[in-house]
Write the structure tokens for this entry.
Amino acid sequence: MKRYVFPVVAVLVLLAACNKVEVPVYDSEHPSLNFVKNFFIPGSLSDPELDTVRVHAVFYPGLSEGECKLPVYLSGAVADYDRTYRVRLVDEKCYGNLVEGVHYTLPAEQTLHAGQYADSVVVKLHLDRLRADRAAGVLVVELVPDGNFVAGLDDYRNIGVEISGGDFLREPYFWGLNKLTDYGGTYLSVKAEKFAELNGITSAQWRSDSNAQLYAYGKRTYEWFRDNPTCDADGGRVEFKGSINYE
């Protein structure tokens, strides 16, 4: 995920880092829309074909609002006029304590503009409320057939959006990429979140430039937990310390 700086609103745009899988045009007479899912990190929902976009509010310090864009691709003919399309949540696959209108907003109607073959479903994120409530969960967004578009390919009609304003729902990639167990000890969500917050980490895929930087970041996090007593779920004192000696 790349970081963009905007004066008012954070736009969270997730870009492909590997080969793109083309969505086939299977019926040009009856246009449909399909999510471009291979841009994202595979999820672990009950549907094995459902990829998941992951957004954590800690990566966007100081911002109160943001947008998560879910790319869609047209299968069929490009039109010379605007066409609306609809999305909805698949309630039985969503979970967590996210509240629509409070922590996020999903406009039911979106627009594929004239001449376009691709668009993005926009999920508006209320980052300040996500942080304040430490809300977290997974939304499953579905493209809905209507008068403009028929149902798309089965494997590309749904996509998951994992949103968290507090604890990481699973170990973020930067923890393993940087061997942070050596610096912070056994993984805990509170350790990863504080490490990201204190050191300005803005991506789950962040990789350090050097061991010296990791040491400095680790020491800062170690000192924070030393000076701010924090307990884990079992009531034990949290220490950010592995095999690296900070004293």
